[in-house]
Amino acid sequence: MCMRRPLIICDFDGTITNNDNIISIMKAFAPEEWHALKDGVLSKEMSIKDGVGSMFQLLPSALKEEITAYILELAAIRPGFEEFVSFLAECDLPFYVVSGGMDFFVYPLLEGIVGKERIYCNQADFGGRYISVKWPHPCDAECGNDCGCCKPSIIRRLKRADDFIIMIGDSVTDVEAAKRSDLCIARDYLLKECEELHLNHAAFTDFYDVKRALLGAREVEEWIKCKNAGRSLPK
């Protein structure tokens, strides 16, 4: 039996995709007020839930089809991601996408690559005059950050006591999860935070970099050796 099971948690916006899709939507469709809300989240003066919820409240629900078509055409998957997911499947490495993004673009962009049962994200409600956000994955009793989609809470539900947690991300929404990981593979804002907090981390530009960083972790190397040797793996 292998010693520790690697558990891989991956952000979506700006990590799997080249751009942050919420920011792209706001730039194209929201009035100027969204800038102050974004700055409030980045400075941590406003919770992610309040900031993101308020940004979407600036957008009329009547724009649903236009916004959806825009973001699905604009968004691009970061190079190497599909091959990376196939590699994880071949190695029986557990993988989940945990995103502060919205279902109306996360699900279609990952269709055929990652099954819905392995995706955690928020839900956009177009039933009112303005878009509202539903939060199906709130903070548990151990988190008081009002995250919206609470990545640390989801990790606590998915992990076992001896799991080796690997977080892949890029932004402020990934910081609390990074603090609870054994290895963080990061870019952009999150990379700077990892450096300042002295977290165990590696930098990435694409998912070929992510794969190399994974293979450099002793726990992943041991897991793959066990797999290739036909030995029993933790389920």
How would you summarize what this structure contains?
This protein has helices at about 20-30, 35-40, 50-55, 65-75, 80-90, 105-110, 150-160, 175-180, 190-195, 205-215, 220-230; strands at about 5-10, 95-100, 120-125, 130-135, 165-170, 185, 200-205. It is of the alpha/beta class and about 240 residues long.
Describe the structure.
Pathway: Amino-acid biosynthesis; L-methionine biosynthesis via salvage pathway; L-methionine from S-methyl-5-thio-alpha-D-ribose 1-phosphate: step 4/6; Amino-acid biosynthesis; L-serine biosynthesis; L-serine from 3-phospho-D-glycerate: step 3/3. Its EC number is 3.1.3.87. With 235 residues, this protein is of the alpha/beta class. It has a domain at 6-19 and 76-122 and 136-228: Rossmann fold (3-Layer(aba) Sandwich). Helix content is 43%, strand content 15%. It is built from eleven helices and seven strands. A seven-stranded mixed beta sheet has the order 4-3-2-1-5-6-7, sandwiched between helices. Helix 8 (175-179) links the parallel strand 5 and strand 6. Helix 2 (33-42) runs antiparallel to helix 3. The longest helix is centred in the N-terminal third of the chain and has 11 residues, at 64-74. The radius of gyration is 18 Å and the shape is globular. The protein starts with 5 loop residues before the first strand and ends in a 7-residue tail after the last helix. The relative contact order is 0.19. The model has no long low-confidence stretch (mean pLDDT 95).
